Prior knowledge:
Blueprint: H1 2-14, E1 22-26, E2 40-41, E3 51-54, E4 58-60, E5 66-70, E6 75-78, E7 91-99, E8 106-113, E9 122-127, E10 132-135, E11 140-142, E12 154-161, E13 166-171, E14 174-179, E15 191-194, E16 205-215, H2 220-230
Antiparallel strand pairs: 1-16, 2-3, 3-6, 4-5, 5-16, 6-15, 7-12, 7-16, 8-9, 8-15, 9-10, 10-11, 12-13, 13-14
Amino acid sequence: MSGILQTFFMFAAKAGIITTDLTFYYDPANSDSYIGSGTALDDLSTNAYNATLQNGVGFSSGNDGVLTFDGTNDYISMPTASAADFINQSFTVEAWVYPSTSPPSQQTYFSILQDASTQSRLQFRFYSDGIIRFGYFAQDLDTSSGQVDFGSWQHFAMVYNSGDDTSKIYKNGVQLASGNQGPLLSSTNRVINIGRFGNGSEYWKGNIGAIYGYQGAKTVGEINDNFDALKGRYGF
């Protein structure tokens, strides 16, 4: 019986992402988050940071349900209150993304924008040469070129650990880069977007599936648990 119970709990742990310390969690495959039409994208975390689809973000039933972006003006606006969970503290943001095979020169899938001063902005940006940037304005962590697989699903995690002032980039559970960038510094009236840079540029072209953030720096083991939890949906 103990072996059966152990198997059951191992399966249950893999059935979904880690929910401890969730800041936000949007998943268009879950009807509690998105019903497949309209502009309301509800937060599955307990914070109720409900978001809004802007300018015609689309929906596809592929991969159990994903949001589609045209690279021109589509984006998702998040409540400004959610920025407080990233300022001067550890955090993690993870996302399943499918960048188009014809990418723009720069595209951003998550950003927090205040002003043009050091460490007052946060963005997760892809370049058309496959460089990934985890940036804080004037403090940017970049991967080498060729790290983005355009036209394929990938899982990315961006982690900031205030304990050792370290930022890290992971792709499909494997660390690509690490450095002493950050933290995001305190300010007010921040603009928080999924699918564009907050000043109305670098629009995402492609699809975005589940995207979620945490207070605290997730370990590589936890990131891999999250990757394993949803990878079957995205063809892994």
